[in-house]
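yo

u said u wanted the structure for the complex thing, so here. seqs first:
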Amino acid sequence: MRKVYHRPEGLTDTLMRYCPGCGHGIIHRIIAELLVELNIRERTVGIAPVGCSVFADEYFNCDMIQPAHGRGPAVATGLKRANPDLIVFSYQGDGDLAAIGTAEIVHAAARNENFTVIFVNNAIYGMTGGQLAPTTLPNMVSTTTPRGRNTKLAGNPIRVCELLNSLDGPVYINRTSVHTPQWVLKTKKAIKRGFEIQMAKKGFALIEVLSMCPTNWRMSPIESSRWIEEVMSKYYELKLFRDLTKEEK
Amino acid sequence: MSERYLFRGNHAIAEGAMRAGCRFFAGYPITPQNEIPEYFSARMPDYGGVFLQTESEIAAINMLFGASAAGVRAMTTSSSPGISLMQEGISYSCGADLPMVIANVVRGGPGLGNIAPAQSDYFQATRGGGHGDYRTPVLAPNSVQEMFEFPKLAFELAERYRTPVIILADGLLGQMIEPLEYTFDPVDPKTLPKKDYILDGCKGRERRVIRSYDLRPGYLEKLNFERIKKYQKIEAEEVRYETDHLDDAEFVIIAYGTCSRVAKAAVRLARNNGVKMGLLRPITLWPFPKKMIEELTGKTRLFIVVEMSMGQMIEDVELVVKGKAPVRLIPHPGGGIPTAREIWERFQQFREEL
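structre next:
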């Protein structure tokens, strides 16, 4: 019998705690495959956020660190500047990166720190049970906007790629998704690009990945994928915002 | 005799840190300690280290979290309001057992307070300061020479016990200029033993994880009991203090930092007036010199606590004295500095009231 699918060496042999239909597992697998394909697993330090993916420090088969909520980019700065030979990635959710950690991500991007950020946007707080996220869409129901996000009261969503794209610092900014197999492949390509830019010491790369949260969206996994296609990706445009390495050529 | 240099306290602490092998500094400007990051920014390139002015004190302490995890001697400095912002990171660093050095050049508070010298962050420094069960060793210099020497001691303690260490100075110590001797040879970080917990890639070994959480039932308690053992060891082995004229003292001043310098002058004044006064100067505020105060309690007629705060260290003194001797306070909350004459006069009042 031929083995056609196996756990990549970049993942530990641990049962993941993610819900059925959640996008984290897919994104984890992409990163894990790249750690092996790019032959960087043994010199990588990954940063796990606070949120559902706090347990990423158990799942990635490389050195991992788990700092305070939103502070990943500051910790990544410390790690990478102290030891520039490391490959450093910061894995962050929307609450971690776009709410409590806004200052840290903006300034790391402005300084063009040489590490890679994987920003998982599922428009909701998963770990704490479905509260409003900085990326929750207008009128979207969360447990703290039970009548839907009224932008007059709860403010407007933040488009992180567009925000960071106003800075001179970052080298690479891309928004992808994992709601279809095609987009999973595109996401892998984008994250690979992010790591390659870091390996070439070119600087800061952020890949925003739209991801499903069926549990807190109160949808089935299939409905969740469809919702990204029909609604979420209309608000958060899937596109390459910047690749300065291409402009150099 | 080796050469002496005139140094400002804030410059001395920075030079002392880099000579002690510090190769990572991150910080945010705040008065009265701005000369520290300025000095680091000028000199760190010569030492081949990293200097970074950050977007906030929160970023600074978290950069230390990363740099310390990468294995380098990392330091930040700030003054009171900035240290408040760092408490989150200090708590996480204690939870992750990461060594680092944090100097607080204390100013008046609460709030934005003022920029005058103060000691009102005593509780914050000695009680942990952030959330959760932890302590951090606290070193209180009282001269420019000690501003220079304490970073080295702080790094040694930090690495021996894998803990953040606080240097609690104040605006006066930061700004004043005194002669300084280079009392130790520069430390080459490459000669320090390699740490067995740092994150440098898992080549040829099991992967490592640095974290401050453990959600499994019962595990955090076990971990914290282990950490308490570490704190007990620090309390047993790392108490530091200085005494002046204590042998025959009937009256004992307890003061640290700037106040201990003034208190020394007050002791001289008292002795010149035939009064048997002495001084106990805690150098480590945590661990606190409890045993020494216990020993003094039996033979002291009066303890006088002098502090540039509303009465914080006095609580530690009273916890040891337990009402067996009178303890009086000379407080200066909000930027005032006591004078020797003032201590002498207040002492005479206290003595009359006994």
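The first strand of chain A starts at residue 44 and ends at 47. The domain at 24-248 of chain A is CATH 3.40.50.970 (Rossmann fold).
cya
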